[in-house]
Amino acid sequence: MKSLKRIGIGLLAGLTCMLSVSQTVVAATGDNYVTGDNNYRQPVPQSYNVVKTINNIGSYEDDNPYFKSPQDLFIDDKDYIYIVDSDNSRIVKMNDKYETVNVIYGPDKPFKKPQGIFVDEDGDMYLADTGNGRIIHMDPDGKYIEEFTNPESSLETGSTFEPTKLIVNKTGYIYVVKGENIMAIDGNGEFRGYYGQTNIGYDLTEALMRIFASEEQKAFITKRLASSYINLTLGDDGMIYATSTEREEGEIKKLNSVGNNIYRKYKTVGNAIKNPITDFIEKKILKAVVAGNTFKFGEYFDDNGMYIEPIFTDICVDRDGIVTIIEQITGKVYQYDQDGRMLVAFGGLGERAGTFTRATAIDVDSKGNILIVDRVNANIQVFEPTEFIKLVHSATSAYNNGDYPGSYDLWRKVLAIDENYDLAHIGIARTYYKQEQYKLSMEESMLVGDRDTYTMAFDEYKYVVLREKFIQIILIAVAIIAVVVLLFNLFVKYAKKGYWSYLNNKDRKMGIGQGIMYSFYTMLHPIDTLEGIRYNRLRINMAVPFILFTTAFVVRMAYLYIVHFPLASIELEDVNPVFEAVKLWIVPISWIPASFMATSISGGESKINEITFTAALSLVPFIVINAPLMFLSNILSKTQRSWYGVFSAMAYLGMFLILFMAMMILNNYTLGKLWV
């Protein structure tokens, strides 16, 4: 067995235990709620009421009065409602009073399992006649105008053309969902390219396989494909809003004229080389444990706390740019503003009003009423907005239109209804920011943990202070640098003194002060420090590791309370001292028994005392780096988080390096022996 592997098993067991503790899913106490970046559900006032359920076509004369597996819904500028009644192979057209005014089965030949519809500003209908493999263009009365089939110039000429969802822009281009792409067809039926494909990045393993693998092996290499699109709609801003199965960048997309996603992203998918180890950890371990710790569209845990990967079956955008989507697995309806912040979530699975069995289509009329199609229940539910959500929409719209004082007043009215509605505080913070009241913006942002707005305000506030007090700041900076240089020299001086004092006094046991100074010599010469422990193991003082473990914990707790708000990794109210101690100590403490067992089996020389001592030494980089870093953070913001994080990473890197070197030096192992 390999010694290093045994240590790894012990550390991994500890890490798994630590991650298991971190999973927390809080169920909503009501039907309407919002979730933040931490996945907690916060109840909000009722946002929509079900005012009507449409189960059939009413008094309109037809042989099939009931819907059968309706697949799509569209509401035009005049609030006419078009329902794609797929299994009845027809279109049902209703007015704004939900009265059927027309039923269309096909102007030239019967429709066959249609799945999608779009209606332009003139009332012309474009139907995805899926079973007939065409897109048919009809006038407002349902009379035939033209049809579009698979374009001859398509890169996939000869492939099956089965259009499902589509939109038509103002230039007459038809955009059709086609797997991982959106196909563009012009008004003449000519292929105009594929649009909106997600960049899948560069995979080093795949590249090497294609270079070195045999032809037989290459035949078994699975081609990597971009995530598929599910549905799309056209916003009043001319942008295409779409839902997809894209888990890296985000399932909801807002595509500009060249097909780039400009909506809120999880992260940018580029050409970075993937590391198979970190990729495995992220996708296989962290997915199930900490998926809720960062922003996601919808939710990654259902009402029972079970992990899911959401499927957003449809999307609509109202005249104010409010984005509403429906999720298939949970039956939830989620609503977002133009910045991708959740306004409300409601709905769910069930048979009662306001819930769904299989929601498949959604649209919104000019009054803000939301209509949702349930394919299995074969009905359409009409949701009317309450005064609360109307105020939220108005405040959001006023901000987007540049009316910041008006937005501020509206958000105050929202808070009068629900003082815990976080988005109202964020909205107020942003109106303060736009009006250059940066300190007020920062204070409001902190109330709800909005680090993005705080960062914007803080960066501007820094420039204001710098301009007003430039001379004073320069003098303070010079003084701080002088103090830092002095402290560094003292650190080096006393660390060296502790090291040589311990080595030269061979007849005396290590003193506590001497041991602490000796420990900090690890930052200057880790190999010499560890060798000193090996050759003087009988004189070490076991009170020193206890002090180091305690000091590291104190530094960690102080760090959580002192670190600048936008750089904090946890909210103060969520701080748990026991959990923080476990996170900090899990690696060095797990290393002690793992190392002792490994060296006992492999003929090592180290004993439990020196192993414990060196385990404590591994915390010295954490102490030395984080002690000043917590204070330095208060002049930094989230925009400097990347390189700020490098210093934090160095603390843990130093920890592992010291443990690795200790394994070699204490047991007189060579690098090769370490693996035997």
Give the helices and strands, then pairings.
Blueprint: H1 3-21, E1 33-35, E2 41-43, E3 48-54, E4 70-75, E5 81-85, E6 90-94, E7 100-104, E8 116-119, E9 125-129, E10 134-138, E11 144-148, E12 166-168, E13 174-178, E14 181-185, E15 191-195, H2 204-212, H3 215-218, E16 229-234, E17 240-244, E18 252-255, H4 276-289, E19 312-317, E20 323-327, E21 332-336, E22 342-347, E23 359-364, E24 370-374, E25 379-385, H5 387-400, H6 404-417, H7 422-434, H8 438-447, H9 451-468, H10 470-504, H11 512-520, H12 526-535, H13 543-562, H14 577-601, H15 608-617, H16 620-632, H17 641-666, H18 671-674
Antiparallel strand pairs: 1-2, 3-25, 4-5, 5-6, 6-7, 8-9, 9-10, 10-11, 12-13, 13-14, 14-15, 16-17, 17-18, 19-20, 20-21, 21-22, 23-24, 24-25
What does this structure look like?
It is a single chain. The longest helix is centred in the C-terminal third of the chain and has 35 residues, at 470-504. A hairpin with a 5-residue loop joins strand 23 (359-364) and strand 24 (370-374). Helix 13 runs antiparallel to helix 14. Helix content is 39%, strand content 19%. The N and C termini lie close together (7 Å). With 676 residues, the chain is of the alpha+beta class. The chain has 18 helices and 25 strands. The strands form seven sheets. A four-stranded antiparallel sheet has the order 3-25-24-23. The chain has a four-stranded antiparallel sheet with strand order 4-5-6-7, with no helix packed on it. A four-stranded antiparallel sheet has the order 8-9-10-11, with no helix packed on it. 38% of the residues are buried.
